[in-house]
Amino acid sequence: MTSIINHKKIEEILIDNQDNSRNKIIKIIDKAREKKGLTLEETAALLQVEDQKLIEQIFMVARNIKDEIYGDRVVLFAPLYISNKCINNCLYCGFRKDNRDLKRISLTLEEIGQQVKVIEKMGHKRILIEFGEDPRAASIEKVVEAIEAVYESGDIRRVNVNVAAVEVEDFKKLKAAGIGTYQLFQETYHPQTYEQMHPSGPKSDYEYHLTAMDRAMEAGIDDIGLGVLFGLYDYKYEVLAMLEHAIHLEEEYGVGPHTISIPRWKPAFGVDKEDIPAPVSDEEFKKLVAIIRLAVPYTGMILSTREGVELREELLELGISQMSAGSCTDPGGYKEENIKEKADAKQFRTADHRTPDKVIKGICDSDYLPSFCTACYRTERTGERFMDLAKVGEIHKFCQPNALITFQEYLEDYASRETKRSGERLISEQLRKIEDSKLRKRTKKRIEEVKEGVRDIYL
Ligand code: SAM
Ligand code: SF4
């Protein structure tokens, strides 16, 4: 049995923290305000809260933490599915091997280039490339070639990668290719559920999958993203186990996860809704997002287009710091004329079908600031260095100006007339909010340079 996740301990903590007095919960919420995170026991106690008034208080503190650490910024990205060929059989996934009717597609390097061009025209600067697991279509050499193709084909400035667990030597190759974050979702931390959900293929090895992040760290990738696929097992257990995983990484390597993803199970081609073992309601989902925000305040939280418009807007307030927009989950799905997916080649059904321009307009109209910044990773502010700056509040000095500068780029190059109008109003309001006058002046100057045609500048 693994030493990273102590299943018995997690189950005991959940039982021991079931019945809590109001006072105890209020004390934990007060402690969370200090932005120093929460223990497993404290997190377990909050996860058990059912009282609506207390849940409102958890939401309020999550909103404050979000605001103090991340300000109004929302970082945007698009996923790029390169291959849906897969030798695993994850029961929840449209790409699974036994889903015989799925149309299998692996993009050529030329097709990757074409997809990148379409994604760039939406204004994206960050791409998350994704593959099914397949020794031919997704060997590490193929993955590296794909990363190179994305960087070479134009203006994408950061490529994050979500690809199957590999050995240290192969992680070193990913690092050398210049990846941003390496993401891998544990799907479920519960061993028996993991076994049921992954009946065959290399991914069925729970332990090997779980220790992937240790191998990535050993290979020098200090920017990693954890995740759980909510809907497979009790969400309370999953949140605690993911927190234990984060604590393990922090203790062992001095740096916890850079991001946490919170995909929720969605219907997929060849996967029935009835198959979902432990559905998570919208209310539970909002609660768990807010609690993660309290438990690991400095870890970015990523939300995909699996969720619908209204819920995405609510979750943004409760702690989300990154969002995808305009996504397709089938290889080759991005098209100039529309962004409709091919139903029979995609991984799952998305729920937010707005164009990125509409998503961005929505973000501006809610007074959030869309950011296309990729500066930290390009100036090597990653891993421990990033966390050190973030924890003393210094990261604001970079993030806010860079968000404004890169958003101005978006407005100049890609925005519709309405979005440009909303965006320019937002930028002048946000500029006024920068208290340090020197920093405000520097930022203004950069924004003017962008208006005059200079590109890719940052602090
Ligand atoms: N094949 C790699 C792997 O499994 O680690 C890459 C990941 S896959 C392309 C991206 C993620 O999509 C999976 O890790 C899983 O959490 C999620 N996913 C799969 N099927 C899903 C579904 N039906 N609904 C929502 N998310 C799903
Ligand atoms: Fe393959 Fe990943 Fe889908 Fe599993 S989740 S079937 S490994 S693509």
Tell the overall outline. globular
Measured on Cα atoms, how large is the radius of gyration? Answer: 21 Å
What is the annotated CATH architecture? Alpha-Beta Barrel
What ligand molecules are bound, each kind once?
S-adenosylmethionine, iron/sulfur cluster
Beta content comes to: 5-15%
Report the major sheet. Answer: 8 strands, parallel, barrel
Overall description:
The chain is of the alpha/beta class. The protein has a single domain (1-454), classed as Aldolase class I (TIM Barrel), CATH 3.20.20. Helices cover 47% and strands 9% of the residues. It contains 19 helices and 9 strands. The chain has helices at residues 7-16, 22-32, 40-47, 52-70, 109-121, 140-152, 168-176, 191-197, 206-210, 212-218, 235-253, 282-295, 309-318, 356-365, 375-378, 383-391, 396-413, 417-433, 437-451, and strands spanning 73-83, 126-131, 158-162, 182-183, 224-227, 259-261, 300-303, 322-324, 369-371. An 8-stranded parallel β-barrel has the order 1-2-3-4-5-6-7-8, surrounded by 5 helices. Helix 6 (140-152) links the parallel strand 2 (126-131) and strand 3 (158-162). Helix 2 runs parallel beside helix 4 (52-70), helix 5 packs across helix 6 and helix 14 packs across helix 18. The model has no long low-confidence stretch (mean pLDDT 92). The structure holds S-adenosylmethionine (SAM) and iron/sulfur cluster (SF4). Iron/sulfur cluster binds at residues 86, 88, 90, 93, 95-96, 132-133, 203.
